[in-house]
Inverse folding.
């Protein structure tokens, strides 16, 4: 069986299942509004923490990422989430998300200190920054799914995400490029960080069209994240041969 045929049937199945899951869990589209409000309030009160204000905002952001990933886990595994899941989700993956952010900070700091001066001198700051973003987006793209579908710590999650991309990069990136492309057409902004599911609240202030744009963006983002979760699980639990065997049955 060719890889093209496998990709076609695999994504056809995933697309249908993701649409059904979104219809069953449509309330998830409002999480962006809730997270935006929490972040807005957090930004206002953050000066109260003085020199720890940035750490406070980072922990707050990590808690919201944890919450969203936990809701996705409930949708992928049970096809439903409850109000209690929403309440619990802020802490479920907080430690893991925080550790991933911390590792990323240390790595970027090391690159800035030891490699940036040499590389910028050779290729310029723009090429260096673009290359860094490209490598992060390319190699870490499956990190959110790894966090909530695999029982690894922060560093192990990063390593597994890289290995997953190396093994399944064609099957993973073809549908993901389409998802990101459509999201960009809807919202007018590129989505390069799948950890960030917060469409700017400023869009709503643009009137009825802004509200419609916000809702469409959240709908497509939610569909895309459910799609990614289902695709990640399918790729992790089957091979091309197994998928062919199951279809023939």
């Amino acid at each position: 069986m060719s890889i093209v045929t496998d990709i076609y049937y695999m994504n056809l199945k995933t697309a249908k299942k993701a649409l059904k899951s979104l219809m069953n869990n449509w309330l998830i589209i409002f999480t962006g509004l809730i997270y935006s409000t929490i972040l807005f309030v957090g930004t206002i009160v953050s000066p109260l923490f003085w020199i720890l204000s940035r750490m406070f905002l980072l922990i707050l952001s990590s808690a919201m990422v944890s919450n969203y990933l936990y809701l996705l886990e409930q949708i992928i595994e049970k096809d439903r989430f409850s109000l209690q899941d929403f309440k619990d989700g802020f802490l479920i993956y907080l430690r893991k998300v925080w550790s991933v952010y911390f590792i990323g900070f240390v790595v970027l700091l090391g690159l800035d200190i030891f490699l940036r001066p040499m590389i910028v001198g050779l290729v310029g700051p723009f090429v260096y920054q673009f290359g860094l973003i490209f490598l992060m987006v390319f190699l870490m793209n499956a990190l959110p799914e790894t966090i909530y579908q695999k029982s690894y710590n922060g560093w192990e999650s990063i390593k597994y995400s890289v290995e997953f991309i190396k093994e399944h990069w064609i099957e993973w990136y073809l549908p993901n490029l389409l998802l990101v492309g459509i999201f960009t057409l809807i919202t007018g902004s590129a989505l390069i960080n799948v950890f960030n599911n917060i469409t700017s609240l400023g869009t709503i202030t643009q009137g009825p069209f802004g509200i419609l744009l916000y809702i469409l963006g959240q709908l497509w983002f939610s569909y895309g994240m459910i799609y990614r979760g289902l695709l990640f699980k399918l790729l992790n639990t089957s091979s091309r041969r197994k998928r062919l065997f199951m279809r023939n049955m």
User: Anything to note?
Assistant: Residues 154-187 form the longest helix (34 residues). The chain has one domain: 3-248. Residues 3-248 form one domain.
